[in-house]
Amino acid sequence: MSQTITLYVDGACRGNPGLGGWGAYILIDDIQHELCGGEAETTNNRMELTAAIEGIKFCAADAKLIIWTDSKYVKQGITEWIHGWKKKNWKDVKNPDLWQQLDAVCQGRDIEWNWIKGHAGHAGNEKADQLANLGADQTLALLKQPAQDKKKSETDWLLSDPFGLDFIEDELAEEDEILSEQLQASSVELQIDTADTADTADTAKDTNLHPHIHITTATLEQHGPRQLILDTETTGFYYQDGDRIIEVGAIEMINRKLTGSSIHIYINPEKPVGDSVQVHGITDEFLVDKPKYAEIAHTLFEYLQGAEIIAHNANFDMNFLNMEFQRVGLPALSEVCGVVDTLALAKSKHPGQKNSLDALVRRYEIPARDRTFHGALLDAEILSDVYLAMTGGQVSFDMDALSHSDQQTDTSIRRVQLNVTLPVISPSEEENQAHENWVQQYQEKHGEPCLFAK
């Protein structure tokens, strides 16, 4: 039986085009592999593609690969668009050299492609992002070396830096590329997810925030009591014995609708994470430059206070949060927030059954997400789906029975039949020809006839 390998791949670019890096975080059994590299003049999408190519090349040809990328451009390209591109012999395709390389390394392999939301606190994705930025940093360091110290194999264009490499990261690059490729691939409705870009912009606006505090503003305006679906990751199970919080994630819900507002923070616990790394995947090395709780406590408290906290096994999270806030001289969170424990709720609804978050995800058929490692924001997002499923549900309507009931209960209603002749507007010859051209173009791009074909 072949082994299963999990890969997290990511790209980064400081300017578009500009200095870029790629990273691949690979989990083979219990061994972790870290790959990275970069280029002085590239684009974000080229780095995303390179990360996938290099990650796959590293793995055994007979292994099953489970690949996670936060690039819809890569995921949709390799699973959907590429078939049409090959039929057109790669005409009008951006980055054809890398797409052909990716297609080649995928041939004959068992690969499962998955998309994951970037910068959402998932440990594997965060690690790949770190590696991508490390690749960019290493490339920049090489560029800054004196010319006589550079390797002879480097080409002349690497020795000059006409742009100065003074850029900020431009997360709109991938969205532009997705739009361009989707316009080529299909004439159906386009859906571009700009949430990550909006999140980054909103966070950057508040210059008073610690750089490691990520707060997104609401994109859906709602009025009513705030509920915060919350999760924490810690160094252990016992706050009484000195275990500390290392990650907090919470998403806002009002009137049973997620507003888009959230908070996410990694925290330096000032002690080793120990064996808990096997649960959340967050290492001491990753946390070394993160803020201590005292540095983020007031911002976090201000965001949480007054809301109703929804958490799974809420006593665990609330005990740790109460301890951490009181440690810095703030009130216990339980004094300023209501609490809903979804574990207690699940036990009352499903007595005698497993009621872990994973069990509830299966029971309520929540869309699967990768949980190789637990992450606070990821678990909060999953819990929001579980909570809505547990406390809501769909109502099935029998329209015939409802109509029959209406007739019985209100005999004053009369049904009047109206005979209306609707005009028939036939298309012109020019419109018919335009339609036929569109149908033909669709078939050429997708390799199959359109539903609207005659």
From TrEMBL:
Cofactor list: Mg(2+); Mn(2+)
Residue ranges of every copy of the RNase H type-1 domain listed in the record: 1-137
EC nos: 3.1.26.4
Record: residues binding Mg(2+) 2: 10, 129
Sequence positions that bind substrate: 231, 233, 280, 379
Residues reported in the UniProt entry to bind Mg(2+) 1: 10, 48, 70
UniProt KW keywords: Cytoplasm, DNA replication, DNA-directed DNA polymerase, Endonuclease, Exonuclease, Hydrolase, Magnesium, Manganese, Metal-binding, Nuclease, Nucleotidyltransferase, Transferase
Cofactor note: Binds 1 Mg(2+) ion per subunit. May bind a second metal ion at a regulatory site, or after substrate binding.
MF (Gene Ontology): 3'-5' exonuclease activity; DNA binding; DNA-directed DNA polymerase activity; magnesium ion binding; RNA-DNA hybrid ribonuclease activity
UniProt cross-references to SMART domains, sorted A to Z: EXOIII (SM00479)
Main localization (coarse): cytoplasm
Catalytic-site annotation from UniProt: 374 (proton acceptor)
Positions with a binding annotation for a divalent metal cation: 231, 233, 379
Catalysed reaction equations from the record: DNA(n) + a 2'-deoxyribonucleoside 5'-triphosphate = DNA(n+1) + diphosphate; Endonucleolytic cleavage to 5'-phosphomonoester
Complex formation: Monomer.
Function: Endonuclease that specifically degrades the RNA of RNA-DNA hybrids.
UniProt protein name: Ribonuclease H
Gene from which this protein is expressed: rnhA
